[in-house]
Every structure is written in structure tokens, then in C-alpha cells.
Amino acid sequence: EAVADEPGELLPSVPLISVIPKDAADLWRLAAALASPVCTAIAAQKYAGAALNVNAIKLSAKQVLALPLPSEERAWNKAAHMFRAAQLSTEPAERHRYLVEMGSASCDAYCVARDARDSLMAWWQNRLGSAACSRSIMRHN
Q1: Tens of pLDDT along 47-105?
Q2: Number of alpha carbons in the 13 Å side-chain half-sphere of residue 43
Q3: CB 3.0 to 4.6 Å from 102: which of 9, 16, 82, 87, for a disulfide?
Q4: What is the pLDDT of residues 20-46, one digit of tens each?
Q5: Are residues 36 and 79 in contact, defined by beta-carbon separation less than 8 angstroms?
């Protein structure tokens, strides 16, 4: 699960991996890439079961750095915008909608072929589950 800490107020804890962009403007883009269906599928294919659950994905910092970045800028920017909207949302249904839009835009950003897109999105949405969509990642004051 990716979380963007724009104000830098969260305290990292084990087993968390912090990814700090060279350019702060790329924070949401990197979060969207890490949370994307493409990176999730790559990580699941290579590293699923590394944690205590067969479906869990636990990456090392080196493995995170090896994940590919999207090539289509406009779609990547849209995915970042949708990821930010999802993270800031306090309504579960709205958060879910934004995450699905982020996933779709991410598929465009990674140039996923149309014939593979539907199955990838269905698999990824199933991994989102109701628990991930029922809470807001960040507290809002």
C-alpha cells in the first residue's frame, strides 16, 4: 500500500520503505506508479508470499527501485491526480472510485494493451478489496 506524506508529518516504522523523490513535485506521480496495477502485478509475480501470507507482497527497497516507471506522461499525471484525490477522500465509495480511475489511468501510462487491461484491472480491483477502500489513509484536521 502506497501513502504519500506530502507535509512530511508521518513517522516511518518497520516494515515501511520510504521513497523520497528528487523533485517534490513527483511525490504523487511516484505514489501512483507504486500503487498501479502494473507495479502491483509485477511485484506479485516476483515477490508474492514473501510476507506471512501467500497473497501478501513485501518488497525490499532494492526491489522497489527496480520497478518500472510509466512512459506516457499525460496519463501518469492523471493517475497521480486520482491517487491524491483517493488518499484525501474521507468517503469510502469516493475513495474506491478514485482508486479505480487511478488504476485505469496507470494502465494508460504504462501503455497496457487493451486485451490485457480488463483482466489486469479486474485482478487489481479484487486486491483492493473492501478494507482498503473503507478507510482514509491520512487523517484530516
Answers
A1: 876 556 777 788 889 999 999 999 999 999 999 999 999 999 999 999 999 999 999 99
A2: 27
A3: 82
A4: 899 988 999 999 999 999 999 999 998
A5: yes
Distance CA 44, CA 124 (A): 10
As given in the structure block, the three cell numbers for residue 58 are 513485501
CA proximity to 99, closest of 111, 89, 109: 89
Q: Residue 125: which pLDDT band, with cuts at 50, 70 and 90?
A: very high
Show the cell assigned to 12: 516511518
In degrees rounded to 5, what are phi and psi of residue 48? -60, 145
- The type of residue at 83 is F
Record the cell numbers describing residue 102, joined without a space.
Answer: 487511478
Cell of 71: 512512459
Predicted TM-score (pTM) of this structure: 0.85
For residues 36 and 69, the answer to whether their CB atoms sit within 8 Å is no
Number of other CB atoms surrounding residue 50 within 10 Å: 15
* In 3-88, alpha helices (H): 27-35, 37-47, 61-66, 73-88
